[in-house]
Design goal:
417 residues; mainly alpha; Serine Threonine Protein Phosphatase 5, Tetratricopeptide repeat; 74% helix
Length: 417
């Protein structure tokens, strides 16, 4: 599968009731309007409201908790728009204010740690993200107990991090615990339950366990359409995940229909240069590629590449996956000299960010070896193949049947051939 996006992470909009801070009606009005717009997926308009709220509250000084609250909300909509660098800086500023005011073990500190950790995960900064998530989880379990919803959020986010790092068994255990917490606390039809269902389905699809993933995706889609409306970005996420399962099962017509609907929702709600739009473009490129529609696939891949490079930077795993996908297209097209530098760049990025033993790197090495063999560089190809097999022997059987996911969890065309 290649795309479970925002649903797998519950970002907290944090409020501090009962701490003796008078709130101006204008600031409250701007914050409320921003919250409503964010819930509707109208992120650019929400950003403008939060910027107005920030102007309202900055006059109260850098230690005012209303400032930290507003910064947190603004960082969230930056994140939703793919402005990750801006969001991280603002979360860090908010975190300093809250730690100074409430102490390092306060629940509000855990919420900001969670938000900043998720930004780092999206940026591929996995070690930093893990440390922040574990600190956040520790605070929540001590203060709230092991079955609280905020503990479920921390479990969910840690599971996503471990999935991205190829640690699937540990990820499944954490996802299952988070789903159980949410169903008990919220009921079976709540949108947050749909998020947990999607997350678990994504993991199963990553492992090639499609019969377990498909009913979870359908249940999540039904919940979201009823609760959020048919044009919400999270509906697009569920559509995309269901389409990815149909693609993996060879149901290409249905997969294309679902992917096109997801792309339309995302372009309307998020704009033309959002990472989720790139994910949908990459999915459509994969379909065209598989069906031999190479010219159309190349256009989709290149548009996705441009978005990811602009938003995430040239060293992100998502960008590396997109490079590999375009290289695979050129390989099947017979354009080996065009494919080779793309795969070389993808290997370099994955080694740097994911480490030398990640299964995603193994599949890229195998693809690179295929290209080198076509270019008569057999000894170099054999060395890459041997290295890939060494990595894959450390994986579970499911790990050997499917490529790992990029940040949006779209399934790559790149396979072990």
């Amino acid at each position: 599968m290649k795309e479970l996006s925002c649903c797998r992470v519950l970002f907290c909009l944090t409020f501090w009731p009962g701490i003796g801070i008078a709130q101006t009606s204008l600031w409250e009005e701007h914050c409320k309007a921003g919250d409503e717009l964010r819930q509707q997926g109208r992120y650019a308009e929400a950003e403008r409201m939060y910027q107005s709220a920030l102007k309202d509250v900055e006059a109260f000084g850098d230690r005012d908790l209303r400032l930290a609250q507003t910064l947190n909300s603004l960082a969230l909509v930056y994140k939703e728009q793919g402005k990750y660098g801006d969001a991280a800086l603002i979360y860090q500023r908010s975190l300093i204010i809250v730690e100074n005011a409430l102490g390092p073990d306060h629940l509000e500190v855990s919420r900001l740690l969670n938000n900043l950790a998720e930004l780092f995960r999206i940026q591929g900064r996995y070690s930093e993200a893990e440390a922040l998530h574990l600190r956040s989880l520790g605070i929540r379990e001590r203060v709230l107990g092991p079955d609280h919803l905020e503990v479920a959020t921390s479990l969910n986010n840690l599971a996503a991090l471990y999935r991205d790092r190829g640690m699937y068994s540990l990820s499944e255990r954490l996802y299952m615990r988070a789903l159980s917490n949410r169903e008990k606390a919220l009921g079976s039809e709540h949108p947050d339950v749909a998020g947990s269902l999607n997350n678990l389905a994504e993991l199963y699809s990553t492992e090639g366990r499609y019969s377990k993933a498909e009913p979870l995706c359908r249940r999540a889609l039904t919940i979201r359409e009823m609760a959020l409306g048919p044009m919400h970005p999270k509906v697009a996420t569920s559509l995309n995940n269901l389409a990815a399962i149909h693609y993996s099962l060879g149901h290409y017509t249905e997969a294309k229909r679902l992917h096109q609907r997801a792309l339309e929702i995302r372009e309307s709600a998020l704009g033309l240069e959002h990472p989720d739009v790139a994910a949908s473009l990459n999915n459509l490129a994969t379909l065209c590629h598989r069906r031999g529609e190479y010219k159309q696939a190349e256009l989709f891949y290149r548009r996705a590449l441009a978005i990811w490079e602009k938003v995430l930077g040239p060293d992100h795993p998502n960008f590396a996956t997109s490079l590999s996908n375009l290289a695979e297209l050129y390989y099947q097209w017979g354009h080996y000299k065009d494919a080779e530098p793309l795969l070389r760049q993808s290997v370099t990025i994955k080694e740097k960010v994911l480490g030398p033993d990640h299964p995603s790197l193994a599949y890229t090495l195998k693809s690179y070896a295929l290209v080198l063999r076509k270019m008569k560089q057999r000894s170099e190809a054999a060395a890459l193949e041997a290295r890939a097999e060494t990595i894959l022997t450390k994986c579970t059987p499911h790990c050997r049947t499917a490529d790992t996911t990029d940040v949006q969890a779209l399934r790559s065309i790149q396979k072990d051939r």
